[in-house]
User: What shape does this take?
Amino acid sequence: MQRTGISGLEFDSKGIYVASITKAGCLSVHDFESLYCQTKVLPSSLDDGSKELLHLSVSQQLDGVKWNQANEDEVACSSRSSDHILLFDISYISSEPSDVLKKKPTSQGHKKPKGLSDIVFIPSSKSRVVACGLDGVLYAWDRRISNFPCFELSSSCCQSPFNSIQLSKDEQVIFAASENGCICLWDLRGGKTSAAFLSNKEVYHPPLSIVKLASALEKICPLKEQSEIFSWGIQSISLDPSCSYQLAFHLDDGWSGVLNLNTLEVTHIHCPPPAWLDGTASNYFSRRKPSYLPALSIYAVPSSCENGIHLLDFYPDASAASHVDFDDNTESGAQSCHVHNTFVSLSGLVTACAAHPLNATILAGTMESSLIMVSQKLGSCD
Assistant: This one.
């Protein structure tokens, strides 16, 4: 039987509220300051429902959650078991969504995986939303026009479910990570001066590029010599908020790394031992959602086999502990000013992380549907 638990966490842009979703179909919105004060009384997990500003149950599992950066009274949820995006307005309490975005109905007898696994809003607009689907298609909506997609993006070379999606800071490129281990890049302008959203019709844009992570990992000679490299599914991708050309990834086997978007090469890698090696409890086949901290290029990753999270040093040069060229015997390795890889032991098996956008406090969601807060105190080098 599939275990339930926290399937997604996201802070709003100011860190005032945090939204959490569960596989059982619950959406909760918490006031971060209240949660933080609660830890002074209950230093372990935060599971007191009375502290929630909003708690809704829907009739489907929830897998993706995002705040609308242009209207942060609005939060969107997606489900791998549904072709709808549910939008809720937290400014008033209602169990019904304020808006529902849908895929266009398919012809009779044409069966495809219909779920939508992840969502992004276009920050410069309150009306534009993109989601990635288990049918290997990206769907884009302009809510001013219709609740059905205005265009779709797909690739004949990557016909595999998409698990995670990210939008570049300049809103020009969108990235999607697939179950067959590929990262696809699309230019939302469609190679023209006008944005694809302005076309208001279905159009096809071939990807700018497709990166097969297994092929990129095989180019790291020390890694290839020590490990057999498989084409694992990509569970999550995240853009580094302090370094725009670094795209972090997390794989089914528990490995995490960084794809340099300028060179399309893997520059950082973290390969924890598999769960079966020491017989520990396994988070191996559950979906995990890491999160970047807002500064210093630190990546918080749920462990695949232990109760806790890895804080990975993804600083963008060879002095980073996770860099493929790191040498701890060199002067740069010995005197690095930033944080090295650290494991933080917690009281539960973590499935999702979210970092406060201002103070880097980490909120971890567990398989038991509890929340654990981890405060960060990062000192500077003398």
Residues 214-382 form a domain with the Lipocalin fold (CATH 2.40.128.630). Residues 378-382 have pLDDT under 50 and may be disordered. The chain has four helices and 27 strands. The helical segments are 32-41, 213-218, 221-226, 331-334.
